[in-house]
Each structure stands twice: as C-alpha cells, then as structure tokens.
Amino acid sequence: MARRFTAFSVLTLLLIAAWVSAGQSQGTHPVSGRRIATVMGHEGAAWLDRQEREQEEAPTKAVAALKVQPGQVVADIGAGSGYYSMLLAPAVGPTGKVYATDIQPEMLALIQKKLTANGVTNVQTVLGTATDPKLADGSLDLAVMVDVYHELQQPQVFLRALKRTLKADGRLVLIEFRKEDPRVPIREEHKMTVRDARAELEAEGYRFDEVLDVLPWQHIIVFRPR
Hints:
alpha/beta
C-alpha cells in the first residue's frame, strides 16, 4: 500500500533539502558524472530527528532489513545526530559495537548527549575526516551510510580508506533517496541512482551484492569488498 504524507511534511523536506543545497556545487564524479552535493551542516540536525522521519523514511524497517546480528561491529558513517546509531545499538546488543563517525564535532556532541541521556554504552563516537573514517583495518562487519555517500567530497579516496576497515565478509550499505523516482521530494543532487552507485563503487573494488527496495523513498544498496 502506498504511504500517504501530509502536505506539511513534504513541504518541510523540500525546504530543508533546498537549505542543505544552498552552497556551491562541489564538482562532478569522474566515473559517473554525478554532481557531488554540498555537506549538510550541523545546523540541520533537527531535521534528522524530526517526528515525521519514521513515517516518511521508515528507518526502523531499514535496520530490520539489514539483519544486523548481536555481537557484530557496525559503523554509522556520517552519523549526523545519531538517529541510526541509536537504532543500531540494540540490534548489535551488549556484546556488539557501533561506531558513530562524523566529520563535525558538533554532531558528535549531539550524539554523546543522546547516549548519556539514554544510558547507551555500546556506541562510540569517532571524529573522522573527509578522506578517512578513522577506524581500524578489518574491524567492521557492516558500514552504513545513510544519505551520506552523495555528499562525500572526495568519494574515491574515502571509499579506499573505508574498504580497509571491512572484514572479508563485511558489507557496505548505502541508503540513498531514489533518483529514478521523480516523486521523491528531494533535490536531484541529494539523490542517487543504483546505476551511478554501482559504477562508482565497483570502480573502487567493491562488489555489488543486492538492492533492498523496501523503503518509501530510498534504495538500500549493498556492496561487499572484493
């Protein structure tokens, strides 16, 4: 059954997406020709935690679709306000670990407040850079980028660094708004097609695994290291 959205919630998305894209274009990807989007600043954190997010994006369903197992080590790359980190924490359980990485200290401070307020002890914040997630080699069962990959300013360099952090059977998951669907109310540079994602990641030695199209507006695109 198709989901129904209020005019207010859709308008909110359109306005925030326009605000996020207010900066200048950061160029195009050399493989796909995709326009690289500007990075969302910490000032937009409230949008990430908006009440409508579960209805509009179904993040709980996304985490369930990933089939995260207790004891696994997961990285929420570009974690922002930590919305997904908080959902991943109970999925990995007390024997697992979630690394919430971001390049903005202000975002990490917001996450730490949530962790402290909710007594969450299996999430660790990590200050990464635009070219390196700053995680140990071979440490991750799963790396997740939720509406983040399209904003990487040096995607090829970052993907090479991230690949080293994955275990041999690890997964890299991109959750991105579907560019193939013009009904998704997000600016074009903040969307990704499966075709472009595959072209860009396969060029850096990742193997395409599957697409899980179970969300209202986003693809879940799964890759594995070769």
